[in-house]
């Protein structure tokens, strides 16, 4: 026995045990230290909050929230405040401000009007990432974090109850069927109601109504060779996809409602479908629930509307929470936004969101009750949404489609500074050409004109018209040739050139269309008339019967945006910031989308 034991010990001596033990001890100590550090951090924060107060004082996290979920978010904020959260020695308070997402976007991107809407937020919770994409296109520097979804809600087709009963008992249809259904003179025959005649849609501006934008995405995705999303930039240049978009836009009523809510209110008044101006509008399910129970701030509903789940990839609003950045937002607020976003995703808060707002969350199947007109049907096939750039391009393409497609005149800077690096080893001019070509290639219809400006481009004139503002279909090749021929020259005489383009656009105004001017510049005015002279002359030319907004894209970091803001605000336009070449196409797409 002793000999065997000695041999066993002798064999084991080949591997020293002390290094293994040392590593294990270090690992345990390290784990213990990290655990202690994490726990002590929580304890210290709670101790600071409960006994010593807040050494650095209080910090306020203001959150602008879509009205559809503002009430439960406010309750969640109260619950979070009761925990006395402390971040970097600041006691954090949460203020929830219910604000229409379009208004929030406008104030964030064009300068927060504190006198009208109160203090600016440091976080935002809109209905859809589509709003965040627009803010990114306007000025990506305003985003302080990656948006994360706290709830979802599918897009339905809202119709009067009798129409809903017919649709639900008749043949199924997909979003991609809508162009044909709406174009047919007897669209209701598909649902055994020929006496109702045509099935008429209203699709409010997708740039301002997420339900419209998402429904359009699903119709395009379902019409693609893959039959599903996401919709891509390449798809938008496909003639088949452009045809689907144009037919869907043409089927839209001549003067669609400005907002989905406005359309829902009007739809609720319909008595006779055969005489109704329209019978259907895309809507986010949670918004339809609020309309039917009178919780959306509008007049009480006259009649309940039915929500019909359409086949194919289901478009979905995703309620993203995102921290904001800027001069008035600091690190404490960004961290607080992340913490509060995480809190909203906890089971109790998720249940609150679902029960009160009718949004969908993964942790519970609870729904508001009663919920007239809502079936809460399962969504087996979710639409994969388009990326941030493509969403802007879709809206721009939509604005160029249909009978009322807009008339756009684009004025571009060809000064010497456009030879500077625009990112990824390409000049600013290269990026500009790429963005312009993309717009022309994806344009479904509408009118598009191109001017350039610098100095002495046409004799002594610092500007030159390259193509008139005419239908793209008549001059697509000429537009591409003009874009390819752009060459940087000398200085930047912006004001003189803007005045010339404005005068020309007024003289050639297209009645019955949205007319707009978009200016892309990478520098400040250098010579020519002054800002005051420009404003005076524009004032003389202005005609309220011919609205003509002037919008700018400040390309790069060398642009003085203050005078551009003055011009834009005085004439109903906006100023977007494209920090580099990659940001130029979405910024241009967003401005070309505009409001129809």
UniProtKB/TrEMBL annotation:
Transmembrane regions listed in the UniProt entry: 15-36
Transmembrane keyword on record: yes
Pfam families linked to this entry: SBP_bac_11 (PF13531), VWA_2 (PF13519)
Coiled-coil ranges (or none): none
Domain of life: Bacteria
Statement: the UniProt record of this protein carries the keyword Membrane: yes
Residue span(s) of domain VWFA: 407-591
Name of the featured protein: Substrate-binding domain-containing protein
């Amino acid at each position: 026995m002793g000999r065997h034991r000695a041999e066993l010990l002798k064999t084991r001596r080949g591997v020293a045990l002390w290094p293994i033990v040392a590593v294990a001890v270090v690992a345990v100590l390290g784990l213990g230290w990290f655990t202690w550090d994490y726990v002590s951090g929580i304890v210290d924060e709670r101790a600071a909050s409960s006994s010593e107060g807040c050494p650095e004082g209080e910090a306020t996290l203001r959150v602008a929230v879509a009205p559809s979920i503002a009430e439960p978010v406010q309750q969640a904020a109260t619950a979070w405040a009761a925990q006395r959260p402390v971040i970097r020695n600041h006691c954090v308070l949460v203020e929830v401000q219910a604000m229409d997402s379009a208004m929030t976007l406008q104030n964030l991107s064009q300068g927060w009007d504190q006198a009208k809407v109160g203090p600016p937020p440091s976080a935002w919770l809109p209905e859809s990432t589509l709003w965040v994409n627009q803010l990114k296109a306007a000025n990506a520097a305003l985003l302080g974090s990656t948006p994360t979804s706290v709830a979802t809600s599918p897009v339905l087709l809202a119709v009067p109850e009798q129409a809903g009963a017919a649709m639900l008992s008749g043949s199924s249809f997909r979003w991609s069927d809508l162009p044909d259904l709406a174009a047919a003179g007897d669209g209701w025959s598909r649902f055994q109601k020929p006496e109702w005649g045509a099935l008429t849609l209203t699709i409010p501006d997708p740039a301002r109504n997420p339900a419209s934008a998402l429904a359009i995405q699903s119709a395009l995705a379902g019409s693609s060779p893959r039959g599903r999303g996401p919709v891509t930039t390449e798809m938008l240049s496909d003639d088949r996809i452009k045809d689907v978009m144009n037919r869907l836009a043409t089927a839209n009523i001549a003067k669609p409602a400005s907002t989905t809510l406005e359309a829902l209110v009007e739809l609720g008044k319909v008595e006779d479908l055969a005489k109704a101006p329209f019978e259907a509008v895309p809507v986010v399910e949670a918004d339809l629930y609020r309309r039917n129970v009178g919780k959306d701030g509008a007049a009480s509903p006259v009649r309940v509307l039915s929500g019909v789940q359409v086949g194919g990839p289901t478009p979905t609003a995703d309620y993203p929470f995102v921290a904001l950045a800027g001069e008035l937002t600091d690190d404490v607020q960004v961290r607080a936004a992340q913490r509060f976003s995480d809190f909203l995703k906890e089971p109790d808060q998720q249940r609150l969101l679902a029960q009160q707002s009718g949004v969908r969350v993964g942790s519970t199947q609870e729904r508001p009750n009663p919920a007239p007109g809502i079936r809460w049907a399962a969504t087996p096939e979710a639409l994969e949404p388009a990326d941030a750039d493509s969403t802007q391009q879709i809206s721009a393409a939509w604005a160029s489609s249909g009978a009322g497609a807009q008339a756009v005149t684009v004025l571009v800077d060809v000064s010497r500074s456009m030879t500077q690096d625009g990112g990824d080893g390409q000049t600013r001019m290269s990026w500009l050409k790429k963005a312009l070509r993309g717009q022309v290639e994806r344009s479904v219809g509408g009118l598009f004109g191109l001017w350039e400006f610098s100095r002495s481009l046409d004799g002594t004139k610092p500007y030159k018209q390259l193509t008139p503002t005419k239908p793209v279909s008549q001059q697509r090749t000429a537009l591409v040739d003009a874009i390819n021929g752009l060459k940087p020259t000398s200085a930047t005489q912006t004001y003189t050139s803007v005045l010339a383009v404005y005068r020309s656009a007024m003289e050639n105004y297209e009645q019955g269309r949205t007319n707009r001017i978009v200016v892309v510049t990478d520098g400040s005015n250098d010579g020519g008339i002054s800002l005051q002279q420009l404003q005076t002359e524009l004032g003389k030319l202005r005609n309220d019967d011919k609205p003509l907004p002037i919008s700018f894209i400040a390309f790069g970091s060398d642009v003085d945006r203050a005078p551009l803001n003055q011009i834009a605000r005085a004439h109903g336009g906006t100023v977007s910031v494209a920090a580099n070449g990659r940001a130029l196409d979405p910024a241009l797409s967003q401005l070309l989308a505009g409001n129809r």
